[in-house]
Design brief:
10 strands
Amino acid sequence: MLADPGHPIYATVDERLNELVAPLQGRQAVYVDRLADVPYRLHFFELSIRGQTSVGTPTTLQAELPVVREEIGGGSVSRFSSVAADMLIDLACHPKPPERLAALEAEKAADFLKTTLQMERRKAFQEERWRYADVCRAYLERSFDARTRAAQDRVFSLKAREAESPEVALARQRAEQGRVDLKRTRTERISGLDRLVIARPGPMRHIASAFILPSSMEGIEELTDEPDPETRRRVELAAEDVVIAYGTARGWETEGVGHLNIGFDIRSLRPTDAQTG
């Protein structure tokens, strides 16, 4: 099942996971990279870009989990680079990690992130928000122009009738007040668009770091030995069979679609609801 961030299950799982990993914040673990020649570190951060709604309410425009790779032993900013967050999936946990590690200093990695990725994200969102505000402004101006003409026509019509029917004076006064209110609303709505173009760097938080050792170091070569392609394929197929059997047992229409190359290996559809279809 896929659940988007607005789903109650997503919120519940997210809250529970944050509770479980809270004690680990700011710490570091040791992994092994069979393709590396020298040690390095991965620093995980929480980065955000903040903005405002048209009424001035603070809002998060984007939040992501960027990763900074630090080449150990470098002496300049060039030792930092941005990498994909999922690269940790391909790394193995160290079988016997050192009991003590060098003191973790993530401040320089954070500075690198602030001056590169965060600034790029802010600039991109600033340009996007300007375009969005221009579209909204054009729409609002056309909309209010039409509503203003309609309000003016109603006032003129009531004034013409008022000469012969004094009882419409109250309706004419209300129409004139409505025109004044419409003008004020137009000013407020259009001026509120200036808040939409705001995009500024949000808070940045260091989540954790990983200390990566090359597999060439003594005692960890066997950890990174991968099975041959045929064995790995048999393992993958066996795992798919387990998932398909589970889905079928639940009464879902489950089938393997890995051969179709559509981005996933198994499609599982629950039975159609008898009432809604």
